[in-house]
Every structure is written in C-alpha cells, then in structure tokens.
C-alpha cells in the first residue's frame, strides 16, 4: 500500500511538472504517453488532481493548472528569505539599468523565476517568450546554479535531462557545457548569448548565503545589440547587486592572506 501511494504521489508530481512547460493544457492521452501510464490510470490521476483544485478542466475536456496553486505560490514566496531580501534590490537594479531583471532559483532539475520586473527598455514581446521555468544548460541563471552544485549533483542533473538544441547557439555537447561551467565559476557570472531564445541575451550572477552556498541567481535580459553595446555596465551592475544581496543573506567574502 505504501509503495502504491508513493507511486501515485510521484506520478502526480510528474504530471504537474508537465504543465510547467510551454504547453499549458494537456489531454488525457498526452499525459498517458508522457508518463508511460495506461490511459485509464492517467485519467484517474488527472481527475483526482482536478477534484482537489490543483488542476481544472477546460471546455474541450483537457486539463490546465488550477487557481488553487496561486495560493501555494504566494505562500512559498512569503516564506522565501531570498525573495523578501532582494525585492527592493531587484527594483533598484531595474531602475538603474532600465532593463528587465529577474531572480531565479533551482527547483530539482529546473530553474524557476521567483521574481521578474520589466524595465522601461524591456526586450520586445517577440523575444520575451521565456516561460516560468528555464533550461539549466541554455540560460544564464541555469548556468550559475548548475556551476555551483557538487559535481555528483551536476552529473545527476545532466543524466536526467537532455541538452536539447533550442537555438543555433545552444550548448548541446556535455564536455563543452562542463568547460562553460568552469569558466562561470572563475569569472563570477554567466551569459546566455541567444541560447534559449534567439537574439535574447541574458547575464546572471550568484547570490550566496551565510554558508557560501549559491541559493539564487540575479540577472538581466536584453537584445543582442543592446547587450553588446552596454555589456560592461550590465555585468558590473548585476554583479554589484548580487554581492549586496549575498551580504543580506549573511555571506562574507573570504579573506585572502
């Protein structure tokens, strides 16, 4: 019984993860195929999630995330120290640079935005197609968070996810990605040069806690032309904001002899 219950919970989690992708509505057959479940089992799972409000049915008998999850999201953010501590700082960064800025954290094998602010010089809508989650290997925030986890965890994450080619500049070779992560650790920031969305350039820096662990990434998005013209200023301001946010979390730079 315990094993069956655990299996049901895991399948429920896997089903909800599917809705976090760019496809916001799913049919029973699609879920069954994605989770390798019998159609009857997939329907029972979806119906149960809809009954408790985590999913809701659409008029054409498909499923989408339920509004009940909004309450969970607000509760999570209310309890997030890094979200609360960086809210004003993120707004200040947006005002200083006039561009869109964001705060992201790692959730398992995903990178999730927990705060985004649109600056007056935001990227065009055609470039702003990035969803609520980011690919680890193709986003600046993902590279930051992946570069600062233990090697065994990096291996586990890479084994669980394919390095899908999202644009012509996406890194799809594992050795090349490992080399990129090493460079990220050395330089203290990460770039995504149109690797997730074509012509959308992002730069991110790490936020450390009191134990020097990286708990979040703060970053900025711009068009390719804008970034190349203002790269030095953007990198300097984002790294400054990341260091201030880290100090708010109790981090102190190591003293060198």
UniProtKB/TrEMBL annotation:
The record's section on Pfam families has: HTH_IclR (PF09339), IclR_C (PF01614)
Q: Which UniProt keywords apply?
A: DNA-binding, Transcription, Transcription regulation
Q: Output the Gene3D superfamilies linked to this UniProt entry.
A: 3.30.450.40, Winged helix-like DNA-binding domain superfamily/Winged helix DNA-binding domain
Any Gene Ontology biological process: negative regulation of DNA-templated transcription
Listed SUPFAM superfamilies: GAF domain-like, Winged helix' DNA-binding domain
Q: Record's superkingdom?
A: Bacteria
Q: Which residues form the HTH iclR-type domain?
A: 6-67
- In the record, what terms sit under GO molecular function? DNA binding; DNA-binding transcription factor activity
Q: Where does the IclR-ED domain start and stop, copy by copy?
A: 68-251
The keyword Phosphoprotein is annotated on this UniProt entry: no
Identify this protein by name: Transcriptional regulator, IclR family
Origin organism is Bradyrhizobium erythrophlei
């Amino acid at each position: 019984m315990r094993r069956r219950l655990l299996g049901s919970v895991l399948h429920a989690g896997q089903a909800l993860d599917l809705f976090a992708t760019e496809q916001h509505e799913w049919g029973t057959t699609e879920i069954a195929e994605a989770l390798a479940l019998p159609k009857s089992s997939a329907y029972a799972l979806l119906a149960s999630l809809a009954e408790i409000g985590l999913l809701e049915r659409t008029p054409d008998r498909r499923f989408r995330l339920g509004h009940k999850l909004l309450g969970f999201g607000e509760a999570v953010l209310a309890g997030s120290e890094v979200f609360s501590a960086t809210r004003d700082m993120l707004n200040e960064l947006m005002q200083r640079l006039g561009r869109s800025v964001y705060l992201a954290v790692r959730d398992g094998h995903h990178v999730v935005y927990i705060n985004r602010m649109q600056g007056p010089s935001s990227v065009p809508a055609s470039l702003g197609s990035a969803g609520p989650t980011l690919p680890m290997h193709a986003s600046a925030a993902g590279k930051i968070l992946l570069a600062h986890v233990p090697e065994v965890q990096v291996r586990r994450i890479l084994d669980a996810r394919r390095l899908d080619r999202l644009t012509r500049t996406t890194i799809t070779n594992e050795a090349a990605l490992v080399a990129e992560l090493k460079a990220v650790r050395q330089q203290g920031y990460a770039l995504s040069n149109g690797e997730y969305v074509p012509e959308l350039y992002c730069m991110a820096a790490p936020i450390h806690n009191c134990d020097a662990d990286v708990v979040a990434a703060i970053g900025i998005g711009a068009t390719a032309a804008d970034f190349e013209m203002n790269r030095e200023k953007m990198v300097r301001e984002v790294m400054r904001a990341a260091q201030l946010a880290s100090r708010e979390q109790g981090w102190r730079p190591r003293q060198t002899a």
